[in-house]
Design brief:
Length: 171
């Protein structure tokens, strides 16, 4: 189970109504009984994408273009823009992806934000090769030898088991 408390859309909507009425984040937090950090994130999201984005939180994932990611990360890292301002300017619904983009941008520059190919790379599996008759026969011999060794071991174990039970009966 997660330790995060999830709040419904009505609670988030009530927080925005109180914000629009002129209340601060701290006041809203105490009025609706939600932690300060959660309310602060809701208000940042509300300011950046509006009430629709806030009420749809957790229902769908937003997909952002490479250009948006680079522009937002560059604005915060290089130009000193605050995260809420960048969220509002670029229409980013959450601080989490923005933080991830900033980290990647700092570590690897704009190229680190390029989309990565998904799935298994083409041609990664071994290509089926044409086997010669000699190779097929060699493989068959190995298989039969393994089968033969297995049967011999099985017969030996059964014989050993019979001899143990015979010794017990004679005692």
């Amino acid at each position: 189970m997660t330790r995060r408390t999830l709040y419904d859309a009505a609670t988030r909507s009530k927080a925005t109504e109180l914000y629009d009425a002129g209340n601060g984040v701290k006041a809203i937090s105490s009025l609706i009984g939600v932690p300060y950090e959660a309310v602060r994130k809701w208000i940042d999201t509300y300011r950046s994408v509006g009430i629709e984005g806030l009420t749809d939180m957790g229902k769908k994932y937003a997909v952002y273009s490479y250009e948006t990611k680079v522009a937002a990360a560059r604005a915060v890292v290089d130009e000193g823009m605050t995260k809420p301002e960048a969220m509002e300017r670029f229409g980013i619904a959450s601080t989490t992806p923005l933080k991830d983009w900033m980290k990647a941008y700092r570590e690897g520059g704009p190229e680190a934000l390029r989309p990565k190919p998904k799935g298994r790379p083409r041609g990664s599996g071994s290509q089926p090769r044409e086997t010669t008759r000699e190779q097929e026969l060699e493989r068959r011999i190995q298989k039969l030898e393994a089968e033969n060794a297995y049967l011999k071991k099985s017969i030996a174990l059964k014989a050993e088991k019979r001899s143990r039970t015979a010794r017990r009966r004679s005692s």
